[in-house]
Design brief:
The protein has a single domain, classed as Ribonuclease Z/Hydroxyacylglutathione hydrolase-like (Metallo-beta-lactamase, Chain A, 4-Layer Sandwich). It contains 7 helices and 12 strands. It is an alpha/beta fold. A hairpin with a 2-residue loop joins β6 and β7. It binds zinc ion (2 copies).
Length: about 240
């Protein structure tokens, strides 16, 4: 758990980024605005990531990519390939973000192989030796869809809700998973329905067939309550073995 904070840095936590080491290398799930700093803080080589899988195109989930691209271009010692997979339209949104942050630095030909893969909802896509199934979830991030991710690698299944309100699509997506990382921004229901609250999510626990549920994207109320909850909550620097 490189970063499991909300969009506003509650508790001093970094934006969303989970790094997964598998038999094939290392990939990241989401790459928020502060994620390159979080990697450096955790002494994880940004060059070692061969794949980034994005749930949706909010800044706290993909805003760190311009920094990662420029790091790979100007700082990295090797020219290892990078694949970025995410919602349809991600390449155009990333280009717009990059041009805003660092004008005239986008490359048609980067010094490393850069590939984009669009993840169509309700389809399983092979990403080399890994496979990703996505489902639409309830969270507005522009015209590009917000996705929950079911990632299968090395005989393990990791499901990530992305940011979302409650959505029944999560039930089959989570089924028989080894790990379910789930948005739980608030302790109780809020007028904004784009995030899950513990109040809503806990009513669905019996339906979530996963070996391990870990809550992420914790806002201030959840951070305060987390020590008293029976449900496992993520923290930056948390390591999970599957
Ligand atoms: Zn978020
Ligand atoms: Zn979001």
């Amino acid at each position: 758990m490189i970063g499991c904070g909300d969009a506003f840095g509650a508790g001093g936590r970094f934006n969303t980024c989970f790094v997964v080491d598998d038999a094939h290398g290392r990939f990241a799930i989401d790459f928020g605005s502060s994620s390159l700093i979080a990697l450096q803080s955790g002494k994880i080589d940004p060059e070692s990531i061969d794949l980034v899988i994005l749930s949706h195109l909010h800044g706290d989930h993909f805003g760190g990519l311009p920094f990662l691209l420029l790091y790979r271009e100007f700082v990295a010692s090797e020219e290892t390939a990078l694949t970025i997979a995410g919602p349809p339209g991600l390449a155009a949104r990333l280009r717009a973000l990059h041009d805003c942050f660092y004008p005239n630095t986008w490359k048609d030909h980067w010094s490393f192989p850069l590939n984009f893969v669009e993840l169509q909802p309700s389809r399983t896509v092979k990403l080399g030796p890994r496979a990703v199934l996505t489902e639409l979830v309830t969270h507005y991030a522009g015209p590009e869809p917000s996705l929950a991710l079911r990632i299968i690698t090395t005989s393990r299944t990791i499901v990530y809700s992305g940011d979302t309100g409650w959505d029944d699509a999560l039930i089959p997506l989570v089924k028989d998973s080894d790990l379910f990382i789930c948005d739980c921004n608030d302790l109780s229901d809020q007028p904004y329905k784009g995030h899950l609250s513990y109040q809503t999510l806990s009513a669905q626990f019996d339906r979530l067939q996963t070996k391990r549920l870990v809550l992420t994207h914790l806002g201030p109320d959840m951070l305060t309550a987390s020590a008293e909850l029976e449900t496992e909550c993520a923290f930056d620097g948390m390591e999970i073995s599957l």
